Amino acid sequence: MEEETNKIENAQVVMEIVNPHAAGIDVGSRSHWVAVGQSEKDIREFGVFNQDLFEMTDWLHEKQVKTVAMESTGTYWQNLYAVLISKGFHVILCNGKFTKNIKGKKTDVKDCQWIQKLHSLGLLSSSFLPDGKTEELRTYCRQRANLLHQAASTSRKMQKNLRLLNLRLDVVVKDICGLTGLLIIRAICDGETNPQKLAALRHGNCRKSEEEIAKALQSNGRKDFLFALRQELDTYDHLQKKIEQCDVEIERMLEQIINSDENKSQHHIDPKPHKRINKNTPENIDLNLKSYQMFEGTDLLAIEGMSYSTVLSLMSEVGIEGIRKFPSAKHFCSWLRLAPNNKVSGGKVLSSKVPKGSNRLKIALRNAANAIGNLKDSTPLRDFFQRINFRKGRVSAISATARKLAVIIWNLVVKGIPYHNPAGYLFLDQKRKLGLVKRIKKQIDKFGLTNEELGISIC
User: 382 and 440, same structural domain?
Assistant: First the structure.
């Protein structure tokens, strides 16, 4: 009996080594700590310069390492990741939340040892990374989005300075950076103070009359606020030039990706002249055609609520090859953090909230879902949005509809299942024509008019 007790006390749980030639790297801003084992001699510190990274790869080759795991810490991992891939290593880039449960005091040495141990046992999963061309396109698109954000901030500052000058352009014009607004602001910065002359710059599409605009453009003459307005206008013009340069690079990158693949370049689709174009959409790029070619004959713009900006986010953030990496639509929604995170204990669901966190594609899909909720005509997605909105509120409806959009997109791209809208997606002129026909039929039924009374001859 005592012998059996001693055996039980001395017994150890043995886990299978999945990756025998594995290394773990703790990525830092000034240095990287690398572990190829659990002893002190198996740990080394390297710098962050290119020469140091190549020395690291040579040392890993000496230790016969084949696979490497590291955390995605800020942007410090990117150069190291590129060097390791170029040297033939299999690299696992994992989320930091999977490696943080280390026992005892946290140090760089313990971190790299812990990462190496977890990777050797096969307990780390790799994060999603797009292919090289998609990553380049993503850089240009993200830079453009950042410039648009700065331009919006500059527009708000111009509006503030106009208000301090008592020029209430924001009251009579919907967008001060529109056609009418910018013409008036440029004239004000050039020294024009006559309200009637400023109002005469009104564009023909502006709803307000010249008299109404002139009443809002009587300045108090403050020179300090006028100086600030000129400064902000120069900044706005500079940002617009930068955005145009980004558009050129995005178009070049799209052409390069499409022309390098015959399966993409062979597709063609008719233009959608009635599709609404936002002013922040690239003007010189036919995103309708480019998206149809990028996704190899899949028309994502046929889905109601999908805009050009949403499609551009899909092309730049994941791309068609990135979407195909996910084995199912559930995996795609989980990566987007749009699927409920069910926590079950004792057979009881403790929580089913959507996980915290966001990315640019999730934001784009949520914006598309919000646009679906604002549709006036009944469509399957709009009706789904309204049902969730009635039961759980608009925030939950946006998340649920964004998840449904992600499922539809995955099925369209991966399985080739077409999106079916029984009512069909109608543009504005088509809606007006259909409404007119319905009203005419209603009046005919109401008064009981016959073909003879209507002057219709049936042969």
Answer: no
- Nearest C-alpha neighbor of 366 from the set 390, 385, 391: 385
Over residues 388-415, the mean pLDDT reads: 94
| Residue 125 CA, distance from chain mean position | 23
Same domain, 250 and 157: yes
- Which tokens is 62 given? 């000496």
Q: What is the pLDDT of residues 215-245, one digit of tens each?
A: 999 999 899 999 999 999 999 999 999 999 9
- Structural domain boundaries enclosing 156: 133-254
Query: How does DSSP assign 275-291, residue by residue?
Result: S---TTS-TT--HHHHH
Domain count across the chain: 4
Q: What CA–CA distance (Å, rounded) separates 248 from 170?
A: 32
Which tens digit of pLDDT belongs to each residue from 289-323?
Answer: 999 999 999 999 989 889 999 999 999 999 999 99
- Which helix H or strand E contains 300, and what residues bound it? none
Domain boundary residue among 231, 254, 277? 254
What is residue 198's predicted lDDT score, i.e. its pLDDT? 93
pTM listed for this prediction = 0.83
Dist. CA 268–CA 7, nearest whole Å: 73
How far apart are the C-alpha atoms of 149 and 291, rounded to whole Å?
Answer: 24
Q: Which range, of 76-90, 316-330, 344-358, 422-436, averages the lowest pLDDT?
A: 422-436
Q: What is the DSSP letter of 208?
A: S
Q: Do both 213 and 249 map to the same domain?
A: yes
Q: Residue 302 carries which DSSP code?
A: G
Give backbone dihedrals phi and psi of 278, rounded to 5 degrees, phi first: -70, 150
Give the model's confidence band at 59: pLDDT under 50 very low, under 70 low, under 90 confident, else very high.
Answer: very high
Give 198's Cβ-side CA count (13 Å radius): 27
Q: What angle do CA 31, 37, 38 make, to 5 degrees?
A: 95
- Summarize pLDDT for 231-290 with one digit per residue, the tens: 999 999 999 999 999 999 999 999 999 999 889 999 999 888 878 788 888 988 999 999
* Helix, strand, or coil (residue 115): helix
